[in-house]
Amino acid sequence: MTFNFHPTISTGLLIHVAIPSYELDQSLTFYRDVLGATPFRVMDDRITFGLHNLQLVCHLTSPDDTQPSSSFYPRHFGITFVSSTDYHHFYESVVAHHGCFVYSELTSRFSGRPDEHMTFILKDPSGNFVEFKHYAQANSSF
Predict the structure, then answer these.
(1) Distance between CA atoms of 93 and 126, rounded to whole angstroms?
(2) Is the pTM of this model over 0.85?
(3) Rounded distance, CA 107 to CA 29, Å?
(4) Could you tell me the domains of the chain?
(5) Considering only CA atoms, which of 38, 26, 33 is closest in space to residue 98?
(6) What one-character DSSP code corresponds to residue 101?
(7) Helices (H) and strands (E) in the chain, counts
(8) How would you write the pLDDT of the chain (142 residues) with one tens digit per residue?
């Protein structure tokens, strides 16, 4: 199943996130091929992707400049799915085709609370964490 993560400004708001990349070619492959992001500026020192209403910039960084974290907290960004069906299909697709990037498998958090949600986490080639969520009650994501 293909997911529509094509860049859009239909929400009237773009979110910008910049993260380090130790190898831009690997970042290009991960964000384009695994997550379906659209690369729209590929430069010698950075790649800018469109991922729905997120502008994601991978900046070339030496591993000596910043050590990758072994913990998901605090350094991560994420995407929240509104549709449970889309969320589960995306998870199944990632596991089937790109399982090597799965850091944390699908799990439920905060069971019985208003902010109960499903989550799984991927880790890109530079050690950046990307969390994917689906809330049982859509309005509890804020």
Answers:
(1) 22
(2) no
(3) 26
(4) 15-141 (3.10.180.10)
(5) 33
(6) G
(7) 2, 8
(8) 556 676 666 665 567 888 999 999 999 999 999 999 999 889 999 999 988 888 899 999 887 766 666 776 667 888 888 889 999 999 999 999 999 999 999 999 999 988 899 999 999 998 889 999 999 987 776 6
